[in-house]
User: What shape does this take?
Amino acid sequence: MPKDVVMTRTILRTPRAAAIAGIIFSILFVLGFWLFRQAVPADPLEPGAWLLKDTQSAGLALNIIPISGIAFLWFIAVLRDHLGEREDRFFATVFLGSGLLFLAMFFAAAAMIGAVILVHSAKASGGMIDSDAFHVVRALAFVVMNVYALKMAGVFMFSTSTVIIYTGIAPRWIAITGYVLAFLLIVGSTYVSLSVVIFPAWVLLLSSYILFVNLRRTAAGPS
Assistant: This one.
């Protein structure tokens, strides 16, 4: 097979893989958040009465989170591979670093809630309810996710939007939308609980556009 044909197919497949990974991450992230909210109240200072109810939806959400994280990691890797030599080192460092930090803190917050559920299920007396240990872990999970992880998500959106403008891999309006939403995340993630869906919504927007353009080019065939 000619070398130029192989390169063309590689270029077409790479953004498609990034788009699919981004879409999977967005859907699973929102699904996990919705399931989590069905069981766990948004207030980080609540006494923990939800532990006495059915925690299966929270457990299911905690099992979905690692899969969404893997999809997000794949999204980062494939997008960087697609950028190749066009990737600026400065923004590449911020892009990769903020993405990995978000993922690490996202996992850490989920692991804290998972530990609370596990310990409570092992204590028949319900000793975790309204205990000091519960309040500390519950508040810590909230702070790690809403104060730190989402702010890193905002930095990721900011750096990715800058890369979009410099490389032209997506329209400028997607980058501008990313700047606005990133500012909202960095400033307001602590105060608005639903701000957690801003990040996956933007990733879904970017991924859907990349996939649409890729499928259209594939359908058109080589020029």
Q: What stands out?
A: Residues 3-220 form one domain. The chain has one domain: 3-220. Helices lie at 3-39, 56-83, 89-122, 132-167, 172-188, 198-220. The longest helix spans residues 3-39.
